[in-house]
């Protein structure tokens, strides 16, 4: 697995509030092992703002929280701005600058509580952390074309509707029909550049009734359509042949130079036993070249050996350009709970 020699600092925005007295932004960054926090760049929509005050509180102790909390104050801000999206870029010496996102208002009605909890207890915060990944690692532009593989109940769209311009395009597909229906009636009805499709393929968790193997699915898009793709918590519910097929299809629909951000559970060489038991699921059941948390319903939770995954990426004509350990390894805050893998389609065909 390719190491990332200069990893971006993990972090998130946790609270935003605006009133006539100013704009307040709270958040956290992972404890900085090296590099000093020098300040923040803040934008509201596309307008850059002047930071009047900021302060950071270091972790409580070595045994306590390993997150540094911060607060930013902007006194003069345009309350009639055309966008509620807040972008914060920490300036950290010796570290990659990765944007953190949040919003002052919610543009969409939330899904039912049962559906939100099926994908994430902290539904909205995770939507904006996914946007952090898409922009910071996937290089998604405001007018870009993005594919959401296994879009579920459309979580990332609750952040993307603030970020993508009218010229941008979002496409998502999923095997759960009720979620696609929700997305079409709730999201596409307001944002016509956000489109969702139902794919009737079998999944041991989300679509057991279908008799169509997902390895037969051709993504319903032309070659080279997308600038960026997201595969978030999808391979966790997918067996090896489908993972490999989806990687092939991602390589087909990405444009040359396009990127794909994947979150997955990867077992590292030399650390497999520890990784198998690091997560509460315990990936201890061998299933078709992978490891599952359940011998009866493997798709409940799947993990893959990192070296094999890298080979599958290469076989699909993609390059693994970044790898970041997730929170699940219990080794400090990561960019997400699962491992974050960044793939890129080479601009030139290999010889």
Topology, element by element:
Layout: E1 11-19, E2 22-30, E3 37-44, E4 47-49, E5 53-57, E6 67-74, E7 85-92, E8 100-103, H1 113-119, H2 123-136, E9 145-149, H3 157-163, E10 169-174, H4 177-188, E11 194-198, E12 226-232, H5 240-253, E13 254-264, E14 266-267, H6 272-276, E15 285-287, E16 290-292, E17 302-305, H7 306-315, E18 319-324, E19 339-344
Parallel strand pairs: 9-10, 9-12, 10-11, 12-13, 14-17
Antiparallel strand pairs: 1-2, 2-6, 3-4, 3-7, 5-6, 7-8, 13-19, 15-16, 16-17, 18-19
Helix pairs in contact: 2-3
Account of the 3D structure:
This protein is an alpha/beta fold. The chain folds into two domains: 11-103, Immunoglobulin-like (Sandwich), CATH 2.60.40; 113-344, Rossmann fold (3-Layer(aba) Sandwich), CATH 3.40.50. Helix content is 20%, strand content 32%. A seven-stranded mixed β-sheet has the order 11-10-9-12-13-19-18, sandwiched between helices. It has a four-stranded antiparallel β-sheet with strand order 1-2-6-5. A four-stranded antiparallel β-sheet has the order 4-3-7-8. Helix 5 links the parallel strand 12 and strand 13. Helix 2 crosses helix 3 (157-163). The two termini are 23 Å apart. The mean pLDDT is 90.
């Amino acid at each position: 697995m390719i190491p990332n020699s200069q990893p971006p600092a993990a972090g998130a925005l946790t609270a935003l509030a605006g009133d006539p007295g100013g704009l307040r932004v709270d958040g956290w960054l992972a404890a900085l092992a090296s590099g000093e926090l020098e300040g923040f760049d803040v934008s509201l929509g596309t307008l850059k703002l002047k930071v009047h005050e900021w302060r950071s509180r270091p972790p409580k102790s070595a045994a306590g929280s390993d997150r540094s909390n911060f607060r930013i104050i902007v006194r003069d801000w345009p309350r009639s701005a055309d966008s509620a999206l807040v972008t914060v870029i920490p300036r950290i010496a010796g570290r990659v600058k990765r944007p953190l996102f949040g919003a002052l208002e919610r543009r969409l009605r939330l899904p039912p509580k049962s559906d939100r909890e099926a994908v994430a207890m902290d539904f909205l915060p995770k939507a904006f952390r996914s946007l952090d990944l898409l922009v910071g690692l996937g290089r998604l532009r405001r007018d870009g074309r993005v594919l959401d593989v296994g879009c579920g109940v459309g979580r990332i769209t609750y952040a993307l509707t603030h970020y993508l311009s009218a010229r941008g395009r979002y496409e998502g597909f999923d095997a759960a029909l009720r979620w696609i229906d929700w997305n079409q009636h709730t999201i596409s009805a307001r944002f016509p550049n956000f489109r969702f499709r139902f794919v009737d393929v079998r999944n041991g968790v989300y679509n057991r009734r279908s008799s169509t193997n997902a390895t037969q699915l051709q993504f319903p898009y032309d070659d080279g359509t997308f600038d960026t793709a997201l595969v978030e918590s999808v391979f966790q519910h997918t067996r090896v042949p489908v993972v490999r097929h989806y990687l092939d299809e991602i390589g087909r629909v990405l444009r040359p130079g396009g990127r794909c951000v994947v979150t997955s559970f990867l077992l590292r060489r030399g650390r497999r036993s520890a990784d198998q038991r690091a997560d509460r699921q315990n990936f201890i059941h061998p299933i078709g070249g992978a490891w599952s948390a359940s011998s009866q319903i493997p798709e409940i939770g799947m993990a893959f050996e990192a070296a094999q995954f890298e080979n599958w990426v290469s076989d699909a004509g993609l390059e693994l350009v970044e790898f970041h350990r997730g929170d699940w390894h219990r080794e400090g805050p990561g960019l997400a709970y699962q491992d974050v893998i960044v793939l890129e389609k080479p601009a030139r065909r290999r010889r």
